[in-house]
Automatic annotation (TrEMBL):
Residues 25-119 form the Thioesterase domain. This is Thioesterase domain-containing protein. Belongs to the thioesterase family. It holds the Pfam family Thioesterase. One of its GO terms (biological process) is lipid biosynthetic process. It comes from Streptomyces gilvosporeus. InterPro entries: AB_hydrolase_fold, TEII, Thioesterase.
Length: 197
C-alpha cells in the first residue's frame, strides 16, 4: 500500500504492508538532491515489520550550492506537523546524506513539543556541515558511515545524551545502493532492542 499524505508542500508517502500490521514506523528523509523514490528499495525490504513514511520535499525548494535545502526550518516544521499524527506505533527516523540533518532536527522538535521521543534516529552517509546547529536528543542516534564520513563522528556523537553508535563500512560511499540489506538488518535489530519509554 502506498498512500500520499500532504500538508502544505511537504508530503509523506506511506509504504505499508496490505495484510500484516507493522510493529514499527520509520520516517525517512532523503538527500535534498534525491527523491523519496530513492528510499523505495529500503522500504520494501523493511516490510512487513516496519512501515515507512518517505518524506517528499517541496518541488519549488531552493537548494544551496552543496545540495542542501534552502528553507530548512520550514521543511522541519512541516515534517513535525505531519509526523505528530503518526505516533501510534513506535517511531524512528532515518536521514540519508543531507536528510540526516533534517532527521536530527525533526527528532529534536518532536522531543521538545510532544511527549514522544523517537525510538532511534539513523543518519547515513552524512558529514555534518560546520553550519549545523547541534541538537541534544534524549533518544539514541546511530550513524551509518562510509570511510569518508568518519571525521564527522564527534559532531554526530554530540547530538545525543543517550546511546550513540557508529556502523562503518570501508566501501560505504553509497550505502543505500551497496549496503541496503545490512542497513535493513541493523534497523530491525536497533528497533527491537531499544526499549519503549
Amino acid at each position: 500500500m502506498c498512500e500520499p499524505i500532504a500538508d502544505r508542500d511537504v508530503e509523506l508517502i506511506r509504504i505499508a504492508g496490505p495484510m500484516q500490521p507493522a510493529a514499527f514506523r520509520l520516517a525517512c528523509f532523503p538527500h535534498a538532491a534525491d527523491s523519496s523514490g530513492a528510499l523505495w528499495h529500503l522500504a520494501r525490504q523493511l516490510l512487513p515489520s516496519v512501515e515507512v513514511l518517505a518524506v517528499r520535499y517541496p518541488r519549488h525548494d531552493v537548494r544551496d550550492a552543496d545540495g542542501t535545502m534552502g528553507d530548512l526550518d520550514e521543511v522541519v516544521s512541516e515534517s513535525v506537523r505531519l509526523l505528530r499524527g503518526w505516533t501510534d506505533l513506535p517511531l524512528a527516523l532515518f536521514g540519508h546524506r543531507s536528510g540526516g540533518e533534517i532527521a536530527l532536527r525533526v527528532a529534536g522538535r518532536l522531543e521538545q513539543e510532544t511527549d514522544i521521543a523517537p525510538r532511534c534516529t539513523f543518519v547515513a552517509n552524512w558529514g555534518a556541515s560546520p553550519k549545523f546547529e547541534t541538537v541534544r536528543l534524549r533518544s539514541p542516534v546511530v550513524a551509518l558511515a562510509g570511510a569518508t564520513d568518519v571525521p564527522a563522528q564527534p559532531q554526530w556523537r554530540a547530538c545525543t545524551r543517550d546511546r550513540f553508535e557508529v556502523e562503518a563500512w570501508v566501501d560505504g560511499g553509497r550505502l543505500l545502493e551497496n549496503r541496503c540489506a545490512d542497513i535493513v538488518n541493523l534497523i530491525h535489530d536497533q528497533l527491537i532492542s531499544t526499549p519503549i519509554e
